Amino acid sequence: MNRQMITSCLTRALTLVAVVGLVSAQAEEKQKPVRALLITGGCCHNYKFQSKALIEGVAKEAKVEWKVVNEGGTGTKAKIDLYSDADWAKGYDVVVHNECFANTVDEDYIRSITHAHKEGVPAVVIHCAMHTYRASKTEDWRQFLGVTSRRHEHQSRYPVKKVALKHPILKGMPEDWVTPKDELYVIEKMWPKA
């Protein structure tokens, strides 16, 4: 599996989730762009590459104005300054969380993030952000996600079976696709409103 296929699949999935419900049916020239905030940084992944791939891929499918906040270094414990502003999400149509800080445990800090989403700001959560704040005792982040996941399986390649053959997100996807080596996240709990 090459980077182009990974980028294409990621782009299509995120475009569907983040943009379809947010972009009106107006003609393209009259359509206002989606205002998206991408928050990224932390351990374990190449966030600069992921941000570029996401932005370029989504640009092929939708009008999106991005603000990218890449902070916190490459460790597992950090606080992103943006979240210290109570109105950090104001003015955005969607927030894309791609941060990975498993050992950040400050409950007030975590609640400052989830509060914006409880107030109705839509979010897309990518990969390692599922394990962000996993060492914290507060359940706020996990309730926001709709699941509790603190670990993943060993890396493997997974065959993908297409079940909705005519769905537009599957356009161009090979019939017998096997993922590149990756891990599946273990879901310990599904929250009631997931």
Specify the number of helices: 4
Mean model confidence by pLDDT = 88
CATH names the topology as: Rossmann fold
Shape: globular
Instruction: Return the structural class.
Output: alpha/beta
Give the domain tally. 1
Helix and strand arrangement:
Layout: H1 3-19, E1 34-42, H2 47-59, E2 64-70, E3 94-100, H3 107-118, E4 123-125, H4 140-145, E5 147-148, E6 151-152, E7 159-160, E8 177-178, E9 185-186, E10 189-190
Parallel strand pairs: 1-2, 1-3, 3-4
Antiparallel strand pairs: 5-10, 6-9, 7-8
Written account of the structure:
By secondary structure, the chain is of the alpha/beta class. The protein has a single domain (3-18, 32-151), classed as Rossmann fold. Helix content is 25%, strand content 20%. The protein has 4 helices and 10 strands; from the N terminus they run H-E-H-E-E-H-E-H-E-E-E-E-E-E. The chain has helices at 3-19, 47-59, 107-118, 140-145, and strands spanning 34-42, 64-70, 94-100, 123-125, 147-148, 151-152, 159-160, 177-178, 185-186, 189-190. The strands form 4 sheets. The protein has a 4-stranded parallel beta sheet, with helices on one face. Strand 3, helix 3 (107-118) and strand 4 form a beta-alpha-beta unit. Helix 1 (3-19) crosses helix 2 (47-59). Residues 23-27 have low confidence and may be disordered.
